[in-house]
Amino acid sequence: MSILLLSKESKAQPVIQFHECLWCTSAGAAAWLSAKTPLETTQDGFLKVKSTYECVNFPGVFAAGDCCHMVDHPRPKAGVFAVRAGPPLKGNIIAYLTGKQLKPHTPQTKFLGLISTGDKYAVASRGCFTLEGAYLWRLKDKIDRTWMDGYTNLSSLDAMNNHGKDGGAYTTPLGVAQKGPDVMAAFAASSMRCGGCGAKVGATTLSRVLDAVEKRRISKTNAFTLMESSIDKQSTKLLPASRQHDDAAVTLLPKKGGGAMIQSIDFFRSFISDPFLFGKIAAVHALSDCHAMGAQAQTALALAVVPYAADEAITESTLIDMLSGASDALGADDCELVGGHTCEGAELALGFSVSGYIDDPTKLFRKQGGKVGDKIVLTKPIGTGALFASDMRGKCKGWHMAEAVENMTKSNGSASKLAVEFANGIHACTDVTGFGLVGHLLEMLMANDSAEGCSAIGAILNIGDIPFLGGALDASSQEIFSSLQKQNSRSRRSIANHHEALNAYPTTYPLVFDPQTAGGLLFFVAPDVCDAFVSRLDEDEGTVCASVIGDVCDYSEESDEKIDDICTITNHDKPSKKMIRVRL
Q1: Among 381, 362, 357, 386, which Cα is nearest to 521's?
Q2: Which of 451, 452, 454, 488 is the most exposed place for a label (fewest CB within 10 A)?
Q3: What Cα–Cα distance (Å) separates residue 420 from each residue in 5, 153, 417, 529?
Q4: φ and ψ at 477, to 5 degrees?
């Protein structure tokens, strides 16, 4: 048997006859690196880098692996050099960002090469020495599996917490450590805190705060003998939180102008590494309160927090990306970003104060107003809280994250405008956000209790009809949930057949308590218009989905057993009851 070796130095061969051909090529650089960037490259198109992995003619741009050529220490293109470049590359990027001196790195000159022949046999080479055998395949298999396990079998959250306690890489934030042992203990109980709406203060806590503030306001009013009757109820009076449970504040404008101004505010820290996408999601979330009330958002003020950075350019770039994403989302809904305030902080965060308007305040959608027989319609899948909790643990698949981001960047504006066209058949509406599907559904049911002319109502949920994000189902099956899940789960006390539902739907049922960020709208729709409304939503490109997930029923159909400490914002003078049943 003869072997013919060909290379670019070989003479031209018009015809070559062979039995077996091994076509071996070296690494090639992407053509755009030399053609479309100002970065200096070799004749073959590889980026020229210094021994610090920084590009020779562009400070702050780093490269490692097969795309680059280290000028001071040329090496063949092999994966081992890319892997070993990781630690010094990370160190130099951090050094550059913090204004410290970069450290040079000299790659090894020799390395072990192992090539599998496909039949559990391998050939090894190191410099001029070669070996072959089945034992080398077993060695390669062990090396490969150990490497991949480092990225698939990640440490559990408990292990990460324990590692931090022992002085490892996972450490308690300085601000927490300074607040004493009690705060440290609370933080340790759930040290991986969720972002987005999963970072909200729990509804029970928030409800107590609002109740206390309202009582203080009334007390001060009585102390100064300022009677409520002395205030023009049609002027700019803001309705107290204890009487209204809507998504945004409604201020009636002076009679001369008419109409009403809608005001809402949202703020949370980042839960995604891309500032542009985070800005877009934060804006979509902030607009939803106006959409839930059928109002047109007009202006927004931003409150932006950017992480501390050594270089002003980094702060500027982060702000530009984040506010550009936000501006795109606001602009798509004809809402103008008119100003705001920025500051530095420990982590990226963004919020908006949104002002909207409606000509006729009587046409606003409210949480109250549901009627027996109404269909319950949801316009987005749920599960963002569990999905991002899974992502924080490195267990969320890429395509699941892509699905979630696509849904979260879709505004509820289109669904809201369609609902306005069906206004006579839309009896109530809210957006599904931090308190979860059940928490916000309860707000709608309980809003009728304190509203004149509204009958007490309950709800029947069809778990099988609720749309869930694929990543959320994966997370739930592994019992991974948002840090707000425990607080939200208090709403289970309002569900007449909680234990039966949990047994029947062990994966999907827990997600009805999952906190949502940029979630969909939840409607109570008259049965005679529901089919037409859902059909229009399905046809609308701006709406993610339209799912009929249950029915509004007579309150007497559910248990009259009184319960306390339920997870929802409501009037604490009236205990909550079991108002929801899951259809099994």
Answers
A1: 381
A2: 452
A3: 75, 50, 5, 13
A4: -65, -25
- Contact between 395 and 154 under an 8 Å Cβ cutoff? The reply is yes
Compute the radius of gyration of the chain from its Cα atoms: 30
Residue pair 354/263 in contact (Cβ under 8 Å)? The answer is: yes
Instruction: Based on DSSP, count helices (H) and strands (E) in the chain, helices before strands.
Output: 17, 18
Assessment of whether the complete model's pTM goes beyond 0.70: no
Q: Which residues share a beta bridge with 375?
A: 525, 551
Which helix (H) or strand (E) is 416 found in, with range?
Answer: helix 413-421
Token look-up 């440290």 returns: 184
- d(Cα 141, Cα 122) in Å, to the nearest integer? 10
To which residue do tokens 């019992």 refer?
479
Helix (H/G/I), strand (E/B), else coil: 111: coil
Q: How far apart, in Å, do the first and last CA atoms of the chain sit?
A: 73
pLDDT in tens, the chain (584 residues): 566 777 777 777 778 788 888 777 778 889 999 999 999 999 999 999 999 999 999 999 999 999 999 999 999 888 888 889 999 999 999 999 999 999 999 999 888 888 898 889 999 998 888 999 999 999 999 988 988 887 777 665 555 555 544 444 444 555 555 545 655 555 555 545 555 454 444 455 445 555 655 565 566 556 544 444 433 444 333 444 444 556 555 656 656 567 888 999 999 899 899 999 999 999 999 999 999 999 999 999 989 888 887 677 788 888 888 888 998 999 999 998 888 888 888 889 999 999 999 988 889 999 999 999 999 999 999 999 999 999 988 899 999 999 999 999 999 999 999 999 999 999 999 999 999 999 999 999 988 887 777 888 999 999 999 999 999 999 999 999 998 899 899 889 889 999 999 999 999 999 999 999 999 999 999 999 999 999 999 999 999 999 999 999 987 654 444 444 443 334 443 445 688 999 98
Distance CA 191, CA 235 (A): 47
Three-state helix/strand/coil letters over 433-501: CCCHHHHHHHHHHHHHHHCCCCCCEEEEECHHHCCECHHHHHHHHCCCCCCCHHHHHHHHHHECCHHHH
Give the number of other CB atoms < 10 A from CB of residue 75: 15
Give the C-alpha separation, 38 to 41, whole Å: 9
> What strand order describes the sheet that includes 129-133?
113-116, 122-126, 129-133
Own/partner pairs, 280-283, CB within 8 angstroms, 24+ separation? 280/325, 280/326, 280/328, 280/329, 280/409, 281/196, 281/325, 281/329, 281/405, 281/408, 281/409, 281/517, 281/518, 282/326, 282/350, 282/351, 282/352, 283/325, 283/326, 283/327, 283/328, 283/329, 283/330, 283/352
Report the C-alpha gap between 525 and 344 in whole angstroms: 45
CB contact set of 377 (below 8 Å; sequence gap of 6+): 522, 523, 525, 530, 533, 534, 537, 546, 547, 548, 549
- 188's tokens: 């340790």
The strand pair at 580-582 and 457-461 is best described as: parallel
Angle between the 398-408 and 384-392 helix axes, to the nearest 10 degrees? 140
β 547-554/375-378 pair status: antiparallel
